[in-house]
Amino acid sequence: MKARIAVLPGDGIGPEVTAEGVRCLEAIAEGFGHEFELTSLPFGGAAIDSDGDPLPEATLEACRCADAVLLGAIGGPKWSAPDARVRPEQGLLRLRKALGAFANLRPVTVHPALVDASTLKAEVVRGVDLLFVRELTGGIYFGGKERDATHASDVCTYTVAEVERIVRVAGRLALSRRGRLTSIDKANVLETSRLWREVSTRLVQQEFPQLSLEHMLVDAAAMHLIRRPRDFDVLVTENMFGDILTDEASMLAGSLGLLPSASLGEGHRGIYEPIHGSAPDIAGRGIANPYGTILSVALLLRHSLGLAAEAEALEGAVAAALGQGARTADLAPPGARALGTRAAADAVLSSLRQP
Questions:
Q1: Residues 51, 129, 154, 247: which is the catalytic one?
Q2: CA gap 279, 131 in Å, rounded
Q3: Active-site residue, 243 included
């Protein structure tokens, strides 16, 4: 097949890990007989420096015309002054909104070879396989904002339609997995959460009666993710809760650097990125973990391009590399040899099985 993919390397370690994701896309194209047109575009802090805008119009237009977007990471101290008028994160929020990417999928699995990489006991994390579905274009991040010398406010707003569409995505995914859906809110305090709970209950009863639905307060969810993570299957929640809980859940797998994400809308086009940040403290050193980006490429192949076999081949190659001990510095035990970014990706590519 032919596909156009917009590549947004961004800032910090973003260009380093994205380069390895591109290598994997090129290997898949060559090995499986596809033609991928890859276009690198300025985004985030780098685009502020070059264009004065974290999301230049040319970048946005290219993303609108692409079949998928592969994103690295954005931000850093250079652009994080408290009084900064333009920030890299503004570009990310605008991109999600412009592409209608309202559903953020963040799978968390624990590779058998990495049960020792987590700070939790092996018996707690062994066998963890869960999927977060985070609402991405509503809530407090997109609500009205005010600030003066004596007060500040950030408004959290959700509509029935916004809740319905994200719960519907989560319900479909739960049907394809183990049939358990956990909806996370703060309904004992927040009106938006009371709406969320009412709408999610009704929609699941009407459209997914075969699912097991559990409601859980966000503070309880934070505790049980650490106490009994194997009990979860698909978890659906609003924007800010999902942002916080998925970073917590990443520690089950051992490192932020391992985990991918997909941000999807109503169609096939999506934004794919590792969940980690730009890590400016290690940028340019060639030691960043590329696995989250490579697994994001696998999600891109599956969800935007419909290439399930290719996605499984790439995921299998990552699993094989990890099983053979290919660990970057964030995963290696003290004193053990750690691979650099390129060497870790090389281990994946050498394990990639062709059709």
A1: 247
A2: 25
A3: yes
